[in-house]
Amino acid sequence: MNIYKFGGASVKDAVSVANVCRIIKAQETTDLGIVVSAMGKTTNALEEVIALYRNDDSRYLNKIDDLLDYHLNVVRGLQEFANDQGDECGLRFRESGIINTIKGLLESLKGTLLRNQSKNYSFVYDQTVCYGELLSTKIVAAYLNACGLDVEWMDARGLIRTDHKYRDAGVDWKKSEKAITENCTGKFFLTQGFIGSDENGLTTTLGREGSDYTAGILAYCLDAEAVTIWKDVPGVLNADPREFEDTTLIESMPYSEAIELAFYGASVIHPKTLQPLQGKKIALKVRSFVNHEAQGTVIQNQDGLVPHMPCFIVRKNMIFLRIAARDFSFIGERNISDIFDELNTYKVQVGLLQNSAISFSLCLEDKYEKIDELVKALAARYQVSKIPNVSLYTVRHYNDESVQKLASPNEVILKQFTQETLQLIVKNDTA
Ligand code: ADP
Ligand code: ASP
Ligand code: MG
Questions:
Q1: If you average pLDDT over every residue of the chain, what do you get?
Q2: Across 193-293, where does the E strand assignment appear?
Q3: Among 64, 137, 192, 334, which residue has the least CB neighbours within 10 Å?
Q4: Which residues cross the membrane (predicted)?
């Protein structure tokens, strides 16, 4: 058994979905679980729906109609491709009823929001964003089936069982393993990434970009041979090509290194994906859906990176906080414990921290828009200064040349060196 994961970029339009079908056919494997994310930027669009809905702005309904147009457009394109492959294929796609399925799903989303009484934003979020993956998987499954691949569409909410921490649900491994091994018995199945369900059967999500993690969970529970995530890049590079020039492909690396890169923010892999795979020594392959013959990167049980080189990571739009005692006394263990309690309460992610005698510095990501509340809570007991919009650069395996490469005209607020890792916080607004 192998697990393939196709992210948003790989299914963003009809041409891309047809390419996914080609990739699957080319691998000549019959024992395959396929995980698919929402098409293109659909999850962002659904986040806009929720933002409008939350403000009682009825334009959220227009946004849903835009999503209907977008998905129907993909379906129309695929209908043409199916027709091109012969009458039988074209007929099978038409008879899948996919147009009505898409319309029905988006009507059901409207109904859910109209009936909703809950003021729990995270709960409403999960009941809404899940539609991105439901729509994409229905379309991809209909097309693969029309092309003769005979895949079974499965609802991930019956497989990935979680707690009810909406927007960042924790996996119930025991229940998930039972559900997955009992239900994923078909040789060829296709399901949604990112979504699961809680003990009451209500939809939960695993956090943004969580589809990689879904693939990892399925692979773990099914004792898969490998997980392949198909991306718009040749594999894991030594830096994000959107941010750095002259990047190099890493051919292979150990799990520990991939975990470090993901932890520091290399967005090519979701940080939680590696842990289940490492436990069972299941390889994670990152391959290009553009050049699908190339081998990409393999993450497996081995020593060191091949080739060994500095790896660069940048996280933008971070927030820098410096926390000091009001009377300039030492920041001791009690204060640090108190500060961490607050970070945990507000679910704020820390990218870097450093303490001195009288202050404690943190570089944070405001994932759930909680920073203002956190600062308010801390300011009741400490002196807090905040610098918004900073970038956090991390270089793993740095050398003199890589330190030079990071030389920036902007003000460096903080530098931290450990044996393998260099981190810099840079102010952005002086550019
Ligand atoms: P998906 O379609 O699966 O959601 P993502 O867009 O989340 O894919 O991930 C692929 C993107 O990750 C690439 O387009 C690239 O810009 C970015 N990326 C960040 N760091 C790296 C890296 N070290 N190597 C390759 N890609 C990277
Ligand atoms: N669709 C979700 C997101 O955009 C999950 C994923 O793509 O992995 O965050
Ligand atoms: Mg993604």
A1: 94
A2: 195-197, 203-205, 226-231, 252-254, 283-288
A3: 334
A4: none
Instruction: Compute CA distances 331 → 326, 354, 359, whole Å.
Output: 10, 11, 6
- What average pLDDT does this structure show over 133-137? 98
CA–CA gap between residue 321 and residue 414 (Å, rounded): 11
Domains of the chain, earliest start first? 2-224 (3.40.1160.10), 311-427 (3.30.2130.10)
Ligand 2: residue of 131, 191, 209 to mutate (most ligand atoms within 8 A of CB) is 209
Q: In what order do the strands lie in the sheet with 283-288?
A: 152-154, 188-192, 32-36, 2-6, 226-231, 283-288, 297-300, 252-254
Q: Is the CB of 208 under 6 A from ligand 2?
A: yes
Which are the contacts of 128, defined by CB distance < 8 A and separation ≥ 6? Answer: 46, 49, 50, 53, 109, 112, 113
CA pair distance 235, 214, nearest whole angstrom: 19
Phi, psi (degrees; rounded to nearest 5) at 385:
-115, 145
258-292 pLDDT, tens digit each: 999 998 999 899 889 999 999 999 999 999 999 99
* Per-residue model confidence (pLDDT) at position 429: 65
Specify the length of the chain in residues: 431
